[in-house]
Amino acid sequence: MRLSDAERDEAIEALSEHVRTGRLDLDEYGTRSAKVTAARTRADLAPLFEDLPEPHPSVLKAPQVSPRPPRPAPPVRRFGASAVPIAAIVALLLFFTVARGLWLVFLIPVVVAFVYGTRSR
Fold first, then answer.
1. What does the pLDDT look like over 33-80, one tens digit per residue?
2. Between the N and C ends of the chain, which has fewer C-beta atoms within 10 Å?
3. What b/e sequence results for 35-70 when a residue is b if at least 16 CB atoms lie within 10 Å of its CB, and e otherwise?
4. What are the φ/ψ torsions at residue 17 (nearest 5 degrees)?
């Protein structure tokens, strides 16, 4: 990626900081700052800071990746999450209407949970 003037200025400022702390002498600073001025891409700039600790220009730091929005669950998973509550409601309706007291209808949500639980694994 090509460098902007502001990014070059930031790199020269980082080199100046290394001169102030004694990591670079003036001759080395002059050589490196000339290369920074001539740099066109990040790849041209990276070797100038390889042997130096922080500070580095922000353009050499790893790019910030924006997090992806979460993908919606597939329709089968969405249905599977609501299948057990639906089966429980159906079991209640059957218990109080058609089955009239037959407690075995409450096994329906258990069977549905078991079926969708084994399918999701």
1. 999 999 999 899 999 999 999 999 988 886 655 567 777 666 656 666
2. C
3. ebeebeeeeebeebbeebeebbbebbeeeeeeeeee
4. -65, -40
The DSSP annotation for the chain comes to -BPPHHHHHHHHHHHHHHHHTTSS-HHHHHHHHHHHHH--BHHHHGGGTTT--S---GGGSPPPPPPPPPPPPPHHHHHHHHHHHHHHHHHHHHHHTTSSS-GGGGHHHHHHHHHHHHHH-
Least confidently predicted of 9-23, 84-98, 106-120: 106-120
Residues paired with residue 2 on neighbouring β-strands, in sequence order: 41
Structure tokens at 119: 């399918």
The proportion of the chain whose per-residue pLDDT surpasses 90, expressed as a percent, equals: 43
pTM beyond 0.70: the answer is no
* Number of Cβ atoms within 10 Å of the Cβ of 24: 20
The answer to whether 8 and 41 are in contact (CB under 8 A) is no
